[in-house]
Amino acid sequence: MARFKPCLNSSTIRPTPVMDKIQIAATAGYGAIEIWHDDVDAYLQQGGNLVDMRKQLDDLGLEVPTTIYLADWFDASADTWDGALEECRRRMDQSVQLGAPHVIAGPPGGAADYALGASNYRRLLEVGVEMGVKPAMEFLGFVEQLNTIEDALEILQASGHEAATTVLDPFHVFRGGGSMESIAMLNAGQIAISHFNDAPAEPAREIQHDPDRVMPGDGQLDLDRYCQLLAATGYDGWLSLELFREDLWQQDPLEVAQRGLEKMWPYLEG
Asked: Which residue in 9, 94, 121, 257 has the fewest CB atoms around it within 10 Å?
């Protein structure tokens, strides 16, 4: 029995239309797909509707672990909170309609006021839980702060909300200069999902960004250890292939998705 389940983050086959991404994920053999709100909005603007999207997901037996993402909430002040929350509500409503238990909430790019962010995260969670979806606070290795597991855990604990979670990603752990061993600080209930990818030896860690990510096993990261630590928390959910490579976007999306799943199987099975 596999220790984790395979999910496709739809960024991996951008710019394929979202309904085609859903079909590709199922055809390739994934059990779930992470959907970006920008893709949903483009589909709706072209005359689509969420009822049809949810039906296709259900017909194909695909789950939606998360939708991506909520912005501008972390450092929202008293003057900007209502505007930020309005957009977050709109996106969280999409999440609920698509059956996603979590929606990823991104951190600010620059300096972060942790006290304000933790308070805002609690408020965001309260709204989301009432609506039927839980915002998951993601850390990103290439932002100024909130770039390690320790940073994310500080926000989760300071929020004081039992539904507080984060998103793990081997690239972001590496890029932020943290240690994979820090995964042991978390329990399974604090992990909404694990993205999955690898990082190359070049360029230098400090300048790597999303387009530098590579397929699992094609880089330098100790993904075996990452998965050991992840499983030790009790997490047995999704590993979601998340890449942002233009060279892959120019290839046949089904072939990319199939190749990605083949690359992930050794880590899924353990």
From this structure: 94
Two structure tokens written together for 158: 């300071």
| CA 258 centroid distance within chain | 20
Q: What is the DSSP letter of 14?
A: T
E strand or H helix at 44:
helix 37-45
Q: Could you tell me the pTM of the whole model? A: 0.97
Task: Give Cβ neighbours of residue 267 (< 8 Å, ≥ 6 apart).
Answer: 4, 196, 216, 223, 224, 227, 239
| H helices, E strands: number in the chain | 10, 8
Could you give the CA distance from residue 131 to residue 89 in angstroms, rounded to a whole number?
A: 9
Q: Quote the DSSP letter at residue 189.
A: G
Q: pLDDT per residue over 190-203, tens digit each?
A: 999 999 999 999 99
Domain made up of 5-269: CATH architecture: Alpha-Beta Barrel (3.20)
Q: Residue 239 pairs with which residues in a beta bridge? A: 6, 194
Domain boundaries, the chain: 5-269
